[in-house]
Amino acid sequence: MRDQTAKYLSAVHAAAFRLTRGRVGRRLVNNDMLLLTTKGRKSSRPHTVPLLYLRDIGRLVVIASWGGRSNNPDWYENLIASSGATVELPGGEHRDVTARTATPLERAEWWPRIIGAYDGYRAYQTRTEREIPVVFLA
After folding, report:
1. Over the stretch 66-86, which tens digit does the pLDDT of each residue have?
2. Distance between alpha carbon 119 and the CA centroid of its chain, in Å?
3. Which of 22, 40, 42, 89 is most buried per CB count within 10 Å?
């Protein structure tokens, strides 16, 4: 999928999610979805993307796959520049979060669970030489 197409579909998904408070767009590929809003590292404008997430005790876990492209997604680069972000969960819940990239050991522990939730991540990892980051939001 082309980057512009992916960005357009992401914007449509986010709009439907917000309009319905998550009744539409809350699930995709049999997993829960959230909206992550970061501050643009260059523009300082807010940028929102829908992401599959997993839950851990007191935190959310998202994966910076960008479909296996050779570069990290913009939202991840924005988080590196400024670890703070906002998430929207179904039902209209908003949370301010701080992001932290998993250590190599944490990633190794989480990766089987991640591909168990959505096997597409396994294919994404084979498409790129970069190690796809796993991100904790708390």
Report:
1. 999 999 999 999 999 997 999
2. 16
3. 22
Specify the pTM: 0.91
Closest CA to 135 of 41, 61, 65: 61
Instruction: Give backbone dihedrals phi and psi of 136, rounded to 5 degrees, phi first.
Output: -100, 130
How far apart CA 82 and CA 76 sit, in angstroms, is 10
Q: How do beta strands 59-63 and 84-89 pair?
A: unpaired
Report the amino acid identity of residue 97: V
SS3 133: coil
The answer, yes or no, to whether residue 25 has pLDDT greater than 90, is: no
Do the beta carbons of residue 53 and residue 90 sit within 8 Å?
A: no
- Beta carbons of 94 and 22 less than 8 angstroms apart: no
